[in-house]
Fold these 3 entries.
Entry 1:
Amino acid sequence: MSAFTLIQGVPQHYDWGGYGFIPQLLGTVPEPSQPWAEYWLGVHPKGMARLEGTAQPLAARLAAAGASLPFLLKVLDVRASLSIQVHPDKARAVAGFAAENGRGLALEAGDRNYRDDNHKPEVMVALTPCVLLYGFSAVSDIIARCRPFPSLDGLVTALQQQPLAVVYRQVLQAGAAGLDSWLAPLLADLLPRWRSGQLRGEDHAFWLARAAAENGAEACRDPGLLALLMMNLVHVAPGEAIFQPARLPHAYLHGCNVELMANSDNVLRGGLTRKHVDVAELLAVHRIRPGGIVLE
């Protein structure tokens, strides 16, 4: 394998993707009705690259040369907010994958958490201005964000009296009545201001309203909206990079980037999604550290 080998990746047409960036990158005419969310360049079974101009899978070419590819490279175009999510470490992935296999869950089952036995740390390099949620904020900052909204007074009191991990668990496990009491007044205030352009993209309130608009508008009762207020809002300029280790909660909100990660598709979702949410498993995987995370 001394010479370069051209490969052709696999597009993923998730509904949060954009319509132009990836097709233009590939020199393909975009289809107005089809979003292009990700372009996978690797050997994961869900999106196996192949040698350009052939049907030969990249994995077969590597195996013939006695080589392997332990990472996955992606191009992302984030038009709509992704779910708040966390990826497992290696030990949890191995155990979770084996347990779900033991229960006979199909790999593509909608209620499956682990689709392989690998961890998924990832580094992202921004191609356009990118915005994401990244880890938990300091408790004092979360309280300051919640204070302007009277319906969140109870959440403020809880944060003053209990550890963040306890309050976060209460939010994710809140019933319909609790979520309604928190979110109905909050969205009645924020959504009209977001629609009229009064909110700024530098503030959590803008992204909370935008996420609600994408997930039911005034009727949205997703606990992920409250989790959003608990997380750091990070803006990444083109050419800058950010690393998401395993067990760190995060969510891409907007922008195009290149991601390099371990060869995995394991995602545990905590909100702002119509896909499977397993709160118990999510909480078991989360590392909750106010003010950021210590990389280990």
Entry 2:
Amino acid sequence: MSNLHAISANSQSVWSDQISRAMLESGELRRLIDEDAITGVTSNPSIFANSITKSTDYDEAIAQLAEAGATTVAIYTELVKRDIQDACDVLLPTWAASEKRDGHVSVEVSPLLAHDTQGTIADARSWWDRVDRQNLLIKVPATEAGLPAIEQLISEGISVNVTLIFSLDRYRAVAEAFIAGLERLIAAGEDPSAVASVASFFVSRFDSEVDARLEALGTEEAMELRGMGAVANAQAAYGAFLEIFEGERWEGLAAGGAQLQRPLWASTSTKNPDYDDLLYVEPLIVEHTVNTMPLPTVDAYRDHGNPAPTPFGDEEMATAQATLEALAGVGVDYDDVVQVLEDEGVEKFAVAYRELLTSIGGQAAG
């Protein structure tokens, strides 16, 4: 038994925040499932850019598609589709065994559509039809434009991974969009039990932004808060989750077969080398959540993660609220932090996507 089984024993799922042709063909994904309790996979444009441009694993497929006259976007789409479909097939038994709670693979809509509601809906529908797997999740950013897209897609029975969440207020809006979509789906006479969703709260990037502001302030009080904001923000989000998914409205949906929209902790690798490499894993273990980890973080927990972790609870959530208040007290503007992080996140994925297309286009032409 790997140390990672101790996380799943606390009803938190561990997903791989990495996918590649090599992981699929070598059997590494299968091994992670069998030996390390990995029960899902997430992807994004940056992950695919890394997989495709830093290996030769896709060269033959790119050459064949280019020879057949495929455009650069069509080549990208076909490469991603194949990896996502194959990962879905590997994880299908997990999906079935978990009664559709786990075993999902995420693919992201074009990051160029982050502020285009109708474009996001259309692209999400295309990916849903193209991949054609029951255990697929379509990643939609939690921008203002993304919120109505989330509701619409859920109402159509399309499972959604809501990505790039930084703000507690935005998280509440995401949950509302999910619930409203389910209500529409059920009102149309459809079965909600196969519709899955996670709300991906980005963790480590919060500390990167907040710590820089604390260091700029430079006071003793500010410096003592470094490395504390991200975990506090996530734990506070879980408190909001507990409030949202209780009461008559949600219980009625659950009675009809609706699944919870679980919080997912994303961006959980430690960016600051001075911090513990499991800073965004061990303090965030709690039931009804997912932690999606890049492979080095999976390796770290397997090697020295707590084999008997204690989930956080009311005391930690109260401390989290106090930490966020303390950040405001020393002069950190929470609303500005989360807006900067959302804007940067959208831009980073767009840059990675454009660079990947440029790389594929150059290789196809060569």
Entry 3:
Amino acid sequence: SVITIGTGGLGSPLLIYLAAAGIGRIGIVDFDLVEDSNLQRQIIHTTTSIGTNKTDSAKKHLLKINPYCQIDLFNQKLTQDNALDILNDYDVICDCSDNFPTKYLINDASTILGKPYVYGSIAGFEGQASVFNLTKESPNYRDLIPTPPPIKLIPSCSEDGVMGILPGIIGTIQATEVIKIITRIGKPLNGRLLIFNALKMSFKELTLKPEKENKKIHKLINYDKFCSNVESNNKENFTSNIKSISVNNLKSLLNKQPDKISIIDVRNLKEFLEGSIPGSTLIPLYEIESGEALEQIQNNSNDYDLYIYCKTGSRSIRAIKYLENFGITSINIEGGIEAWNQEQ
């Protein structure tokens, strides 16, 4: 028996392959409705499902594949109050969620219950997969991300975008891990984090080691509050050493010494074509974090003062912090293109 939290981009291929493989009992937790914007990546749903509960839509599809499968629906949000009761009846827990509070909740519940936790996550053009809590010695999600990152600094799908095929690949990997765990064959991603880059069509693997402190979980907490509190502290620490400039001061610099300034736009091409700061160069964030544009930026930093912007500031701060690792100093343009446009 397997339970999945989420029937979106990750949950869709995962559920389809589990039903097709003959899993006898599948639980589905989700409280969202199907929207037309989901269909680009959430392949378990169709146009006829728009406006209906995702759980009902998923069940209808799965029973067409395997009418002998018992499918339990939980059309509700997974919370600290219901998680242990819902998850306890299943052998394997699959995380197909898209937010940090839910991931920490799933992790802590699976740790308390002693059940394997099959993890999946996507962002932009990259995806991750791993298996947590497979044994008492296994690492868990807190060994990968000890504290939640500042959520406001993480681009949303509307800002960063997501290739529809990407969650299909990661969800299929999750399904593979579930089947390996249940049938006890192969080598699951226990203690290993698999990272997939769709642009390069490449995989890399990192080793995860468990920390004893992360095993000492005895009760569930308010995870929305937990992520919110940590976020406020992390954001302050994360941005404390970053130099910034207002758009008004930037305009003054451009008028006085334009030849000494290099402005980098870290948004995507579509956003750049819709409007940009005059004279700026487009280098999307994913090209910076993948290392593709590092040499280009290093060359620019030798001759110019670097100024970086995005839509509102989240991606530019990520880029600046990444470049710091390579000794490249840059300055954040406060408020990004939105602030620039407001001052026109």
